[in-house]
Amino acid sequence: MLAKRVDEIPSNPDGWSFEPKWDGFRAVIFRAGEELLLQSRDGKPLDRYFPELRDPLLRQLPEQCVVDGEIVIAREGRLDFDALTLRIHPAASRVKTLAAQSPASVVFFDLLQVEGRDLRNEPFSVRRAELERALANAQSPIHLTPATRDRATAQDWFTRFEGAGLDGVIAKPVAGPYTPDKRTMLKIKHERDCDCVVGGFRWHKDGEGVAVGSLLLGLYNDAGKLQHVGVCASFTTAKRRELVEFLAPYREDALRDHPWAEWADDAAQASGRMPGGQSRWNAGKDLSWEPLRIELVVEVAYEHMQGDRFRHLAHFRRWRPDKPPKDCTYAQLEVVPPQELMSIFPENG
Which of 21, 44, 205, 323 is catalytic? Predict the structure, then answer.
C-alpha cells in the first residue's frame, strides 16, 4: 500500500487517521509458527541483514500473521538511516557486528492477516484496532506507531519530530481497505530550499554526450572545503538535452584547481561516498562524473539532511547567477533540534 505526496495535512480531518512517517526500510513481515520472513518493498528477503529481530518478533507477534511496518535504527535521539544502509552487506560476520553495535527496531502500522483472518478488505479502523490488540504488550525493539485523528496533533508531529529524523506525516483513510500497489494514502513531507555549488554532473544512462542525468551538488564547510552533499535530478527529457549545451562552457579546463580533482582517479572512486564512488546498492552502476568549473550556483529543494548530506534527491528550482559559490555554505540550512523519541520509542529502542 503506497502513498501519494500532497503539500499539506488534509484540512478536513474527518475520515483520516494520521501517523508519523518513518524513515527506514519498509517491510512486510510474515509469521507462521517458527517460520518468519522479513520482505522488502520490492519482494526481497531482509532476514539475513537483521538477525537481532528474529527472536523478539517470534516472542511478540501472533503465531500466524502478516504485518506491515518499517525497520529503523534509532541512535542518539534520532533515526540513523546511514546505519541502516550499512546492514546491506554480503558478509554475515559484518552484519552480526553491526547488529550488536546498532540494533534495529521495527515500527508496525498495519495488520493484513492474523490467525487465518484476511483483514485486507476491512477498513483501516478495524485493522488498526486489531493491530493494537496484537501488540498490546509490545516491548522494544517492537513498536506500534502512534496514530491520531486530530489534525492539530498531526501538525505538531510534523514539526516536532523532524529533528529526530522522521520524514513527515502519513494520512490514511479510516474507512479504506488495504490496497497493495495503489497510492490511496497521503504523505506530507518536509521540504526546504538552499543554494548549492554545482561541481559536476553525470550523463544520463541512455544518452552520454546527449543528455545530462544529474547535477553534483556541494556546500562549503566551516573549514572552507567544498563537500559533496548530493545530487539534483528528475529533469524532463527536454531539460536534460538543454543542459548539455548550457554546461558545455563550464567543462573547459574544469579539473584545474577543482576541489574534487582527487576523486577523478580509479583508486579514489573505489572508496567513500564521492561523486565517482562505487554504489552501495548496485556494484555495476556507472557513477563516473564530469567536472565543472566552480562557477555555477543552483537553488534546489530538499527534504532534510542525513548527517552532512541530503537524504534524498534534491529538486532543481532555478539558477542563481547573482550568488557567488563561496556563499553556498552549511550555515544557510535550517537546523531543526532533535525531538526525543521517548514518546514513540519508550526505551529509545
Answer: 21
Please write down the long-range contacts of 44-48, taking CB distance under 8 Å and 24 or more positions apart: 46/71, 48/92, 48/95
Judge whether 21 counts as a catalytic residue: yes
Return the CATH fold of 192-332: OB fold (Dihydrolipoamide Acetyltransferase, E2P) (2.40.50)
Torsion angles phi and psi, residue 261, rounded to 5 = -60, -35
Model pLDDT for residues 269-317, shown as the tens digit of each residue: 444 445 544 444 344 445 589 999 999 999 898 887 777 888 888 999 8
Q: Is pLDDT at 329 greater than 60 in this prediction? A: yes
Average of pLDDT values for 243-256? 93
Exposed (0-12), middle (13-18) or buried (19+): which is 58, by Cβ within 10 Å?
A: middle
Single-letter code of the amino acid located at 227: Q
Report the predicted TM-score, pTM, of the whole model to 2 decimal places. 0.70
pLDDT in tens, 72-101: 999 877 888 878 888 988 899 999 999 999
| Portions of the chain given CATH number 3.30.470.30 | 2-190
CATH class of 2-190: alpha beta
Residue in this structure with the C-alpha cell 516536532, named with its chain if needed: 160
Could you give the count of Cα atoms lying within 13 Å of 28 in the half-sphere of its Cβ? 14
DSSP state of 115: T
Dihedral, CA of residue 216, residue 217, residue 220 and residue 224, to nearest 10: 10
Give the Cα separation of 124 and 149 in Å (integer). 12
From residue 218, alpha-carbon distances to 88, 275, 330 in Å are: 27, 10, 10
